[in-house]
Design brief:
- It contains 9 helices and 4 strands, in the order E-E-H-H-H-H-H-E-E-H-H-H-H.
- It has helices at 32-42, 46-58, 62-67, 70-85, 88-92, 125-133, 137-149, 153-156, 161-176, and strands spanning 8-15, 21-25, 101-110, 113-119.
- Helix 1 (32-42) crosses helix 2 (46-58) and helix 6 packs antiparallel against helix 7 (137-149).
- It is elongated.
């Protein structure tokens, strides 16, 4: 069984138009592509973005989200903020033993195979030069992520957001840290 976010118990249950009472919002993990699409639909307004993410994460229609009492909505917003900003290590409760071998919260498929961990390769200068020629920051992150993981560029955005965040943290190290940062200590 793969990971999913904890459900959110509402302090003030919502009654839908058809009379159903919702006391608990089940939350589903969403991937990078879904996250980007929701933000694009919402535009630049922070409230609109959180509302789109709430619809995406809960599967509830806008009408239900709009009926949430403000404190419940704030609780949901806080949970969504954690989901989109924290790495998979936070949700797993521990950092990976090897930062270049990342277990996934949510396995994906790529090139017809199941992928339950990312084994990272340090990018070459050739790859980073090609990355910097791409104009869109999203395209750059997809390109370098695919290069360093061996996952198809069309599949890399299928990673759930916390797995993506964990990957981006390590890629940031690869792209911005000097070689001494990566030296392994030896036991004497």
């Amino acid at each position: 069984m793969t990971w999913k976010p904890e459900p959110l118990t509402l302090r003030w249950p919502v009654t839908t138009a058809d009379g159903e009472t919702i006391e608990i919002l089940e939350l589903r993990p969403f991937d990078v592509a879904e996250h980007r699409a929701a933000l694009l639909r919402a535009g630049k307004d922070d409230d609109d973005q959180f509302e789109e993410l709430a619809i995406l994460a809960t599967g509830q229609p806008r009408e239900v989200i709009e009926e949430l009492k403000r404190p419940d909505y704030i609780s949901l917003s806080n949970r969504l903020s954690e989901y989109v900003n924290l790495s998979s290590a936070f949700f797993r409760g521990e950092s990976p033993k090897d930062p270049d071998d990342l277990p996934l919260l949510r396995p994906i498929k790529s090139f017809g195979r199941d992928v339950d961990r990312l084994q990272l390769q340090v990018p070459t200068m050739k790859a980073t030069k090609a990355m910097t020629k791409l104009k869109d920051p999203g395209e750059r992150s997809v390109f370098i992520s695919a290069h360093c993981t061996g996952i198809a560029a069309t599949d890399i955005t299928k990673l759930c957001v916390p797995d993506w965040t964990q990957l981006q943290e390590r890629l940031n190290d690869f792209l911005n840290r000097p070689a001494d940062f990566f030296q392994k200590t030896t036991l004497t």
